[in-house]
Fold:
Amino acid sequence: MLSRPSPLALLLSLALTAGLATAEETLPTPYTAEEIRDSFREGLQIVTRTWTPDGETLSRMTVDAWGEEKVTIGDQPVDTDGGPSGEETRAEATWTDLRDHAAFNPKHARRERHTAFTALGRFEGWLYTVDEEDAGLSLFFFADRYPGPPLLYQSFAGGELVFRAEQISRTMAEPSELAALPEPALAELPAEARRRLEHAIGTWQVRAEQIDAEGNVVGTREWQNRAEWLLPGRMVLLTHRTAHLGSVSKALVFYSVEEQTWYLIDVNQNGERWVLTGDLEREVITSQPRELPDGREILVRFTHEKVEADSFEALQEVSFDRGETWTVSGRQYLTRIR
Structure:
């Protein structure tokens, strides 16, 4: 029966075995032991975000002892800045052990080719669906590109999501560099740019009103945004998940010291891109022109208003004459929930 894994158990295992079977009875594993060994080199670090109804945690796995037959892996709870937030643990496993952790019993599991959009991007791979009466439904996605733990693991009970673990970063450093990496020489960010980046970090509930040309609210939608550090203190990764549109998009938010320009670069799963820029004088960002199917060009502008520690509003306006005139098209109300 599937149990709820600790971050270390999840990272060391490709997946928790469901109804462990003999080799003759298992589905094919996503990787061979040799593929995992070749992927798990010393210095590999994987940060995983784990969610349960009680909240979210982050953990960083580090491969710190590699051998032909086995590996030692450390697991360190971390905060949003990458600093330690708990005691580090270590475990040892053979490459065969890691391969066999994904040996699912076909009585309870099936596998299929799948395309997944994760925090690390779009990947092709194998999706294993494990359904046991006592343990509920679990989904494990293994990317072809990254032999090792599943990029995404979700567990459901009674049709409700109760556990989610997703890799959000992968880096490689030489073992000797892990202890003390030199601080890069960075241009100092203006205080207002730092404030905006720090204020964005967290999960936000969004209620959006659609407004017609007469100023009437003609529709409302709700979704969640999550903002996390991609480069601590310098760049934020913003994830939009809008269920009503079936859309997921990622945006980079940062301030260019060289250009003295605030950037938000948004790309959705179809590769559609918006680039919005602004300065630090006002909390206003304006898009580059986008051609519509009818041949017109549109500009979109967002103005942040009533900014508080855990809430703000965003006025949305559009222009079809290169910014000569603007029309209100919506307003968003954002409230921090984590």
Q: What stands out?
A: Residues 1-8, 11-22, 175-181 have pLDDT under 50 and may be disordered. The longest strand covers residues 217-231. The chain has two domains: 7-177, 191-336. The radius of gyration is 23 Å.
